[in-house]
Amino acid sequence: MAGTSRGSTRSRASKSSAENAPILSPPNPKLRKDKTRNNSLIRIFNVNLKFLLGFGIISFVIALFFIYPIVNPMEKPQKPRVITPLPAPKLTDLPMFEGEHRESLYWGTYRPQVYFGVRARTPQSLVAGLMWIGVKDGRYFMRHVCQDSDELKQYGWTSHNGRDYGHQVLTEQTMSLTTSFLKSKGHGSGYGGDWAVRIGVQSNESIPDDEMLNTAHLFFYMADEGGKSFNLGRGVLDIHDDSVLASGSRSDTGDWQLHLLSEDVSQVHYSGFKTPHIHNLSDLVQPNLAVQARKFGHLLLSDSSDDSPNILVFQISARIPFRADIVFLSGTNTRDSRVEERLSRLTGISLTSLLSEKQKEFDDKFKKCFSLSDELGLESVSVGKVALGNMLGGIGYFFGQSKILLPSTSTVRYFSFGSLLF
Protein backbone atom coordinates (compact mmCIF):
# COMPACT_ATOMS: atom_id res chain seq x y z
CA MET A 1 0.00 0.00 0.00
CA ALA A 2 2.80 2.17 0.81
CA GLY A 3 4.24 1.71 -2.67
CA THR A 4 0.94 2.39 -4.24
CA SER A 5 0.40 5.50 -2.25
CA ARG A 6 3.88 6.88 -3.16
CA GLY A 7 3.30 6.29 -6.85
CA SER A 8 -0.12 7.91 -6.80
CA THR A 9 1.26 10.99 -5.18
CA ARG A 10 3.98 11.39 -7.85
CA SER A 11 1.38 10.89 -10.54
CA ARG A 12 -0.88 13.53 -9.10
CA ALA A 13 1.96 15.96 -8.76
CA SER A 14 2.89 15.54 -12.41
CA LYS A 15 -0.66 16.02 -13.53
CA SER A 16 -1.05 19.10 -11.37
CA SER A 17 2.11 20.65 -12.88
CA ALA A 18 0.88 19.99 -16.35
CA GLU A 19 -2.43 21.59 -15.58
CA ASN A 20 -0.84 24.74 -14.07
CA ALA A 21 1.67 25.27 -17.02
CA PRO A 22 0.86 28.11 -19.48
CA ILE A 23 -0.75 27.10 -22.67
CA LEU A 24 1.33 28.17 -25.88
CA SER A 25 -0.88 29.23 -28.75
CA PRO A 26 0.14 28.30 -32.33
CA PRO A 27 1.97 31.02 -34.42
CA ASN A 28 -0.23 33.51 -36.23
CA PRO A 29 0.79 33.84 -39.94
CA LYS A 30 -0.85 37.25 -40.23
CA LEU A 31 1.23 38.78 -37.45
CA ARG A 32 4.47 37.41 -38.99
CA LYS A 33 3.62 39.01 -42.34
CA ASP A 34 2.97 42.42 -40.73
CA LYS A 35 6.28 42.32 -38.87
CA THR A 36 8.22 41.51 -42.07
CA ARG A 37 6.51 44.38 -43.89
CA ASN A 38 7.48 46.87 -41.16
CA ASN A 39 11.16 45.83 -41.30
CA SER A 40 11.24 46.24 -45.10
CA LEU A 41 9.75 49.73 -44.86
CA ILE A 42 12.44 50.79 -42.39
CA ARG A 43 15.23 49.50 -44.65
CA ILE A 44 13.76 51.22 -47.73
CA PHE A 45 13.32 54.43 -45.79
CA ASN A 46 16.97 54.32 -44.69
CA VAL A 47 18.19 53.77 -48.27
CA ASN A 48 15.97 56.53 -49.68
CA LEU A 49 17.20 58.95 -47.02
CA LYS A 50 20.88 58.45 -48.01
CA PHE A 51 20.05 58.76 -51.69
CA LEU A 52 18.01 61.91 -51.17
CA LEU A 53 20.76 63.45 -49.03
CA GLY A 54 23.46 62.75 -51.68
CA PHE A 55 21.23 63.92 -54.51
CA GLY A 56 20.47 67.12 -52.64
CA ILE A 57 24.15 67.91 -52.05
CA ILE A 58 25.03 67.30 -55.72
CA SER A 59 22.10 69.42 -56.88
CA PHE A 60 23.16 72.24 -54.57
CA VAL A 61 26.73 72.21 -55.90
CA ILE A 62 25.55 72.23 -59.52
CA ALA A 63 23.12 75.05 -58.84
CA LEU A 64 25.85 77.03 -57.06
CA PHE A 65 28.20 76.51 -60.02
CA PHE A 66 25.72 78.05 -62.47
CA ILE A 67 24.22 80.70 -60.22
CA TYR A 68 27.43 82.13 -58.67
CA PRO A 69 28.80 83.66 -61.92
CA ILE A 70 25.44 85.35 -62.45
CA VAL A 71 25.35 86.81 -58.95
CA ASN A 72 29.09 87.69 -58.93
CA PRO A 73 30.23 88.15 -62.55
CA MET A 74 34.01 87.64 -63.03
CA GLU A 75 35.84 90.52 -64.69
CA LYS A 76 38.00 89.63 -67.69
CA PRO A 77 41.72 90.37 -67.25
CA GLN A 78 42.67 93.57 -69.02
CA LYS A 79 46.08 94.64 -70.25
CA PRO A 80 47.45 97.73 -68.51
CA ARG A 81 47.24 100.82 -70.69
CA VAL A 82 50.97 101.39 -70.48
CA ILE A 83 51.69 98.32 -72.62
CA THR A 84 48.57 98.14 -74.77
CA PRO A 85 49.48 98.89 -78.41
CA LEU A 86 47.80 101.97 -79.79
CA PRO A 87 45.13 100.89 -82.30
CA ALA A 88 46.50 103.14 -85.02
CA PRO A 89 48.90 102.87 -87.98
CA LYS A 90 52.62 103.07 -87.28
CA LEU A 91 54.21 106.43 -87.96
CA THR A 92 56.51 104.86 -90.52
CA ASP A 93 53.47 103.60 -92.47
CA LEU A 94 51.92 107.05 -92.85
CA PRO A 95 52.05 108.57 -96.37
CA MET A 96 54.38 111.43 -95.38
CA PHE A 97 57.02 108.91 -94.28
CA GLU A 98 56.87 106.83 -97.45
CA GLY A 99 58.58 107.26 -100.81
CA GLU A 100 61.76 109.30 -101.00
CA HIS A 101 61.76 110.05 -97.28
CA ARG A 102 61.91 106.37 -96.37
CA GLU A 103 64.51 105.60 -99.02
CA SER A 104 66.73 108.47 -97.88
CA LEU A 105 66.92 106.85 -94.42
CA TYR A 106 67.27 103.28 -95.63
CA TRP A 107 71.02 102.93 -94.96
CA GLY A 108 72.64 104.36 -91.87
CA THR A 109 74.87 103.83 -88.86
CA TYR A 110 72.04 102.00 -87.11
CA ARG A 111 74.29 99.74 -85.00
CA PRO A 112 75.11 101.74 -81.85
CA GLN A 113 76.32 98.66 -79.94
CA VAL A 114 79.56 98.49 -81.98
CA TYR A 115 82.26 101.12 -82.49
CA PHE A 116 81.32 101.42 -86.15
CA GLY A 117 78.55 99.62 -88.01
CA VAL A 118 76.21 100.10 -90.98
CA ARG A 119 72.89 98.41 -91.74
CA ALA A 120 69.57 99.04 -93.49
CA ARG A 121 66.22 99.77 -91.84
CA THR A 122 64.80 96.36 -92.64
CA PRO A 123 64.81 92.93 -90.98
CA GLN A 124 67.39 90.44 -92.29
CA SER A 125 69.57 93.24 -93.64
CA LEU A 126 73.07 93.41 -95.00
CA VAL A 127 75.35 94.39 -92.12
CA ALA A 128 78.80 95.96 -92.25
CA GLY A 129 81.20 96.83 -89.46
CA LEU A 130 84.75 97.47 -88.32
CA MET A 131 87.03 95.61 -85.93
CA TRP A 132 90.66 96.29 -85.15
CA ILE A 133 93.47 95.04 -82.93
CA GLY A 134 94.53 97.28 -80.09
CA VAL A 135 97.78 97.01 -78.15
CA LYS A 136 97.92 97.37 -74.38
CA ASP A 137 100.80 96.41 -72.08
CA GLY A 138 102.45 94.49 -74.90
CA ARG A 139 99.36 92.36 -75.62
CA TYR A 140 96.86 92.32 -78.48
CA PHE A 141 93.14 92.90 -77.89
CA MET A 142 90.27 92.76 -80.39
CA ARG A 143 88.01 95.83 -80.52
CA HIS A 144 84.50 95.50 -81.88
CA VAL A 145 81.65 95.89 -79.38
CA CYS A 146 81.59 99.06 -77.26
CA GLN A 147 82.64 98.20 -73.73
CA ASP A 148 84.37 100.03 -70.88
CA SER A 149 86.90 97.25 -70.39
CA ASP A 150 88.59 98.30 -73.67
CA GLU A 151 89.65 101.50 -71.88
CA LEU A 152 89.65 103.67 -74.99
CA LYS A 153 90.62 107.24 -74.21
CA GLN A 154 87.86 108.55 -76.48
CA TYR A 155 85.23 107.25 -78.86
CA GLY A 156 82.05 108.73 -80.28
CA TRP A 157 80.60 110.86 -83.04
CA THR A 158 81.95 114.39 -83.17
CA SER A 159 79.30 115.25 -85.79
CA HIS A 160 76.34 113.44 -87.34
CA ASN A 161 73.30 114.78 -89.20
CA GLY A 162 71.20 111.65 -88.67
CA ARG A 163 70.71 111.09 -92.39
CA ASP A 164 73.73 110.85 -94.70
CA TYR A 165 76.88 112.02 -92.88
CA GLY A 166 78.82 111.29 -89.72
CA HIS A 167 82.36 111.60 -88.37
CA GLN A 168 83.80 109.97 -85.28
CA VAL A 169 87.12 109.67 -83.46
CA LEU A 170 88.35 106.56 -81.62
CA THR A 171 91.47 107.06 -79.53
CA GLU A 172 93.46 103.96 -78.57
CA GLN A 173 96.46 103.71 -76.27
CA THR A 174 98.99 104.21 -79.07
CA MET A 175 96.92 105.23 -82.12
CA SER A 176 93.78 107.09 -83.19
CA LEU A 177 91.20 105.98 -85.74
CA THR A 178 88.75 108.22 -87.58
CA THR A 179 85.72 106.96 -89.48
CA SER A 180 83.71 109.15 -91.85
CA PHE A 181 80.40 107.90 -93.23
CA LEU A 182 78.74 109.33 -96.35
CA LYS A 183 75.65 108.31 -98.34
CA SER A 184 74.98 109.15 -101.96
CA LYS A 185 72.05 108.56 -104.29
CA GLY A 186 73.54 108.72 -107.77
CA HIS A 187 72.23 107.92 -111.22
CA GLY A 188 72.05 104.15 -111.59
CA SER A 189 72.03 103.41 -107.85
CA GLY A 190 69.73 100.77 -106.42
CA TYR A 191 67.17 101.32 -103.67
CA GLY A 192 68.71 103.25 -100.77
CA GLY A 193 71.66 104.47 -102.82
CA ASP A 194 75.39 103.97 -102.18
CA TRP A 195 77.56 104.65 -99.15
CA ALA A 196 81.25 105.09 -98.41
CA VAL A 197 83.45 104.82 -95.32
CA ARG A 198 86.82 106.50 -94.99
CA ILE A 199 89.05 105.02 -92.28
CA GLY A 200 92.15 106.88 -91.15
CA VAL A 201 94.80 105.69 -88.71
CA GLN A 202 97.25 108.04 -86.99
CA SER A 203 99.85 107.63 -84.27
CA ASN A 204 99.17 109.32 -80.94
CA GLU A 205 102.83 109.90 -80.14
CA SER A 206 106.30 109.07 -81.34
CA ILE A 207 106.45 105.29 -81.61
CA PRO A 208 109.69 103.34 -81.34
CA ASP A 209 110.71 101.08 -84.18
CA ASP A 210 108.46 98.23 -83.06
CA GLU A 211 106.48 96.15 -85.56
CA MET A 212 103.70 95.63 -83.03
CA LEU A 213 103.19 99.37 -82.53
CA ASN A 214 103.93 100.60 -86.06
CA THR A 215 101.45 98.31 -87.84
CA ALA A 216 97.68 98.59 -87.61
CA HIS A 217 95.36 95.66 -88.32
CA LEU A 218 91.81 96.56 -89.36
CA PHE A 219 89.04 94.07 -90.09
CA PHE A 220 86.11 95.23 -92.21
CA TYR A 221 83.28 92.72 -92.63
CA MET A 222 80.05 92.20 -94.53
CA ALA A 223 77.34 89.87 -93.25
CA ASP A 224 73.85 88.91 -94.37
CA GLU A 225 71.37 88.38 -91.53
CA GLY A 226 69.16 86.36 -93.85
CA GLY A 227 71.95 83.86 -94.55
CA LYS A 228 72.41 84.66 -98.25
CA SER A 229 75.84 83.77 -99.56
CA PHE A 230 78.46 86.18 -100.95
CA ASN A 231 80.88 86.01 -103.85
CA LEU A 232 84.53 86.72 -103.16
CA GLY A 233 86.00 89.43 -105.38
CA ARG A 234 89.32 89.42 -107.18
CA GLY A 235 90.51 92.35 -105.09
CA VAL A 236 91.61 89.98 -102.34
CA LEU A 237 94.33 88.69 -104.70
CA ASP A 238 95.58 92.07 -105.91
CA ILE A 239 93.93 95.18 -104.50
CA HIS A 240 95.59 97.45 -107.07
CA ASP A 241 94.44 95.38 -110.03
CA ASP A 242 90.80 95.00 -108.95
CA SER A 243 89.12 96.85 -106.09
CA VAL A 244 86.13 94.49 -105.67
CA LEU A 245 86.29 92.65 -102.36
CA ALA A 246 82.85 91.02 -102.42
CA SER A 247 79.57 91.00 -104.32
CA GLY A 248 76.08 89.62 -103.98
CA SER A 249 72.43 90.16 -104.76
CA ARG A 250 69.37 91.14 -102.76
CA SER A 251 65.75 91.86 -103.57
CA ASP A 252 65.92 95.38 -102.09
CA THR A 253 69.21 96.76 -103.43
CA GLY A 254 69.65 94.51 -106.46
CA ASP A 255 73.18 93.36 -107.25
CA TRP A 256 75.80 95.03 -105.08
CA GLN A 257 79.58 95.33 -104.82
CA LEU A 258 82.00 96.20 -102.02
CA HIS A 259 85.18 98.04 -103.09
CA LEU A 260 88.41 98.94 -101.31
CA LEU A 261 90.73 101.67 -102.59
CA SER A 262 93.90 102.73 -100.80
CA GLU A 263 97.38 103.74 -101.87
CA ASP A 264 98.78 102.72 -98.48
CA VAL A 265 97.49 99.13 -98.37
CA SER A 266 99.44 96.60 -100.39
CA GLN A 267 97.59 93.37 -99.62
CA VAL A 268 94.37 92.08 -98.12
CA HIS A 269 93.69 88.82 -96.29
CA TYR A 270 90.25 87.32 -95.73
CA SER A 271 88.16 84.61 -94.10
CA GLY A 272 84.63 83.48 -94.90
CA PHE A 273 82.15 81.99 -92.44
CA LYS A 274 78.75 80.34 -92.70
CA THR A 275 76.62 80.89 -89.60
CA PRO A 276 72.99 81.81 -88.86
CA HIS A 277 74.03 84.28 -86.16
CA ILE A 278 76.18 87.39 -86.50
CA HIS A 279 76.36 88.48 -82.86
CA ASN A 280 79.59 86.53 -82.30
CA LEU A 281 81.76 87.85 -85.14
CA SER A 282 84.66 88.56 -82.80
CA ASP A 283 84.53 84.96 -81.61
CA LEU A 284 84.85 83.78 -85.21
CA VAL A 285 87.81 85.99 -86.10
CA GLN A 286 89.98 85.59 -82.99
CA PRO A 287 90.38 81.78 -83.15
CA ASN A 288 91.27 82.08 -86.84
CA LEU A 289 94.01 84.59 -86.03
CA ALA A 290 95.27 82.50 -83.11
CA VAL A 291 95.74 79.41 -85.30
CA GLN A 292 97.63 81.42 -87.91
CA ALA A 293 99.83 83.03 -85.25
CA ARG A 294 100.79 79.62 -83.81
CA LYS A 295 101.54 78.18 -87.24
CA PHE A 296 103.31 81.08 -88.95
CA GLY A 297 103.97 83.66 -86.25
CA HIS A 298 101.87 86.38 -87.97
CA LEU A 299 98.47 87.90 -87.17
CA LEU A 300 96.95 87.20 -90.57
CA LEU A 301 93.63 85.67 -91.55
CA SER A 302 93.77 82.25 -93.17
CA ASP A 303 92.68 83.28 -96.71
CA SER A 304 90.08 80.50 -96.63
CA SER A 305 86.30 80.32 -96.55
CA ASP A 306 83.43 78.00 -95.71
CA ASP A 307 81.15 76.91 -98.52
CA SER A 308 78.55 79.57 -99.43
CA PRO A 309 79.63 82.04 -96.73
CA ASN A 310 77.22 84.70 -95.50
CA ILE A 311 80.03 86.51 -93.63
CA LEU A 312 83.23 87.79 -95.20
CA VAL A 313 85.94 89.44 -93.09
CA PHE A 314 88.74 91.39 -94.79
CA GLN A 315 91.97 92.20 -92.97
CA ILE A 316 93.57 95.52 -93.93
CA SER A 317 97.08 95.78 -92.48
CA ALA A 318 99.49 98.65 -93.11
CA ARG A 319 102.10 100.75 -91.39
CA ILE A 320 100.83 103.80 -89.51
CA PRO A 321 99.74 106.31 -90.77
CA PHE A 322 97.46 105.17 -93.57
CA ARG A 323 94.01 105.75 -95.06
CA ALA A 324 91.50 103.47 -96.80
CA ASP A 325 88.21 104.13 -98.62
CA ILE A 326 85.55 101.39 -98.59
CA VAL A 327 82.56 101.83 -100.92
CA PHE A 328 79.25 99.97 -101.19
CA LEU A 329 77.53 100.24 -104.59
CA SER A 330 73.95 99.04 -105.14
CA GLY A 331 72.12 98.27 -108.37
CA THR A 332 75.26 97.22 -110.24
CA ASN A 333 73.32 94.85 -112.51
CA THR A 334 71.46 97.54 -114.46
CA ARG A 335 72.53 98.60 -117.95
CA ASP A 336 73.03 102.20 -116.91
CA SER A 337 74.63 101.51 -113.53
CA ARG A 338 77.71 103.71 -114.15
CA VAL A 339 79.76 101.77 -111.62
CA GLU A 340 83.09 103.43 -112.44
CA GLU A 341 81.62 106.93 -112.27
CA ARG A 342 79.92 106.33 -108.94
CA LEU A 343 83.01 104.64 -107.52
CA SER A 344 85.24 107.54 -108.54
CA ARG A 345 82.85 110.01 -106.91
CA LEU A 346 82.99 108.21 -103.54
CA THR A 347 86.76 107.76 -103.27
CA GLY A 348 89.94 109.81 -103.27
CA ILE A 349 89.87 113.59 -103.74
CA SER A 350 86.19 113.60 -104.65
CA LEU A 351 85.27 111.92 -101.36
CA THR A 352 87.46 114.37 -99.45
CA SER A 353 85.57 117.27 -101.02
CA LEU A 354 82.16 115.74 -100.27
CA LEU A 355 83.07 115.10 -96.64
CA SER A 356 84.26 118.70 -96.23
CA GLU A 357 80.99 120.00 -97.68
CA LYS A 358 78.91 117.84 -95.34
CA GLN A 359 80.94 118.94 -92.33
CA LYS A 360 80.43 122.60 -93.25
CA GLU A 361 76.69 122.04 -93.69
CA PHE A 362 76.54 120.44 -90.24
CA ASP A 363 78.44 123.32 -88.61
CA ASP A 364 76.30 125.99 -90.29
CA LYS A 365 73.02 124.28 -89.44
CA PHE A 366 74.11 123.74 -85.84
CA LYS A 367 74.91 127.43 -85.45
CA LYS A 368 71.66 128.50 -87.11
CA CYS A 369 69.35 126.15 -85.20
CA PHE A 370 70.77 127.03 -81.78
CA SER A 371 71.35 130.74 -82.51
CA LEU A 372 74.92 130.62 -81.25
CA SER A 373 76.57 133.91 -80.44
CA ASP A 374 80.19 134.73 -81.14
CA GLU A 375 80.78 135.12 -77.40
CA LEU A 376 80.32 131.39 -76.84
CA GLY A 377 83.66 129.62 -76.56
CA LEU A 378 84.85 127.04 -79.08
CA GLU A 379 85.07 124.38 -76.38
CA SER A 380 81.39 124.81 -75.46
CA VAL A 381 80.37 124.66 -79.11
CA SER A 382 82.41 121.48 -79.62
CA VAL A 383 80.75 119.84 -76.61
CA GLY A 384 77.33 120.71 -78.03
CA LYS A 385 78.19 119.24 -81.43
CA VAL A 386 79.48 116.04 -79.85
CA ALA A 387 76.30 115.72 -77.76
CA LEU A 388 74.08 116.17 -80.81
CA GLY A 389 76.27 113.93 -82.97
CA ASN A 390 76.19 111.07 -80.47
CA MET A 391 72.43 111.39 -80.04
CA LEU A 392 71.79 111.14 -83.80
CA GLY A 393 74.61 108.69 -84.46
CA GLY A 394 73.41 106.48 -81.62
CA ILE A 395 70.03 105.80 -83.23
CA GLY A 396 69.66 102.08 -83.87
CA TYR A 397 67.28 99.73 -85.66
CA PHE A 398 65.94 96.65 -83.88
CA PHE A 399 63.17 94.21 -84.68
CA GLY A 400 61.56 91.14 -83.12
CA GLN A 401 59.36 90.14 -80.18
CA SER A 402 59.55 91.59 -76.68
CA LYS A 403 58.12 90.26 -73.43
CA ILE A 404 57.15 92.47 -70.51
CA LEU A 405 56.91 91.07 -66.98
CA LEU A 406 53.89 92.63 -65.25
CA PRO A 407 53.43 93.25 -61.50
CA SER A 408 52.41 90.26 -59.38
CA THR A 409 49.00 91.86 -58.72
CA SER A 410 48.10 91.71 -62.40
CA THR A 411 46.12 88.74 -63.70
CA VAL A 412 48.10 88.89 -66.97
CA ARG A 413 51.65 87.69 -66.31
CA TYR A 414 53.25 88.28 -69.70
CA PHE A 415 52.38 90.38 -72.70
CA SER A 416 54.18 89.85 -76.02
CA PHE A 417 54.19 92.25 -78.91
CA GLY A 418 56.11 92.78 -82.13
CA SER A 419 58.17 95.93 -82.34
CA LEU A 420 60.19 97.92 -84.79
CA LEU A 421 62.32 100.50 -83.03
CA PHE A 422 64.65 102.93 -84.69
From TrEMBL:
Claim: Transmembrane helix is one of the keywords in the record: yes
Domain Glycosyl hydrolase family 63 N-terminal: from-to ranges: 104-264
Cellular compartments annotated: Endoplasmic reticulum membrane
Domain Glycosyl hydrolase family 63 C-terminal: 347-409
TM regions (residue ranges): 51-71
Reactions performed catalytically: N(4)-(alpha-D-Glc-(1->2)-alpha-D-Glc-(1->3)-alpha-D-Glc-(1->3)-alpha-D-Man-(1->2)-alpha-D-Man-(1->2)-alpha-D-Man-(1->3)-[alpha-D-Man-(1->2)-alpha-D-Man-(1->3)-[alpha-D-Man-(1->2)-alpha-D-Man-(1->6)]-alpha-D-Man-(1->6)]-beta-D-Man-(1->4)-beta-D-GlcNAc-(1->4)-beta-D-GlcNAc)-L-asparaginyl-[protein] + H2O = N(4)-(alpha-D-Glc-(1->3)-alpha-D-Glc-(1->3)-alpha-D-Man-(1->2)-alpha-D-Man-(1->2)-alpha-D-Man-(1->3)-[alpha-D-Man-(1->2)-alpha-D-Man-(1->3)-[alpha-D-Man-(1->2)-alpha-D-Man-(1->6)]-alpha-D-Man-(1->6)]-beta-D-Man-(1->4)-beta-D-GlcNAc-(1->4)-beta-D-GlcNAc)-L-asparaginyl-[protein] + beta-D-glucose
GO MF, any single term: Glc3Man9GlcNAc2 oligosaccharide glucosidase activity
Membrane topology per record: Single-pass type II membrane protein
One annotated GO biological process: oligosaccharide metabolic process
Chain's role: Cleaves the distal alpha 1,2-linked glucose residue from the Glc(3)Man(9)GlcNAc(2) oligosaccharide precursor.
Protein known as: Mannosyl-oligosaccharide glucosidase
Species, as recorded: Nicotiana attenuata
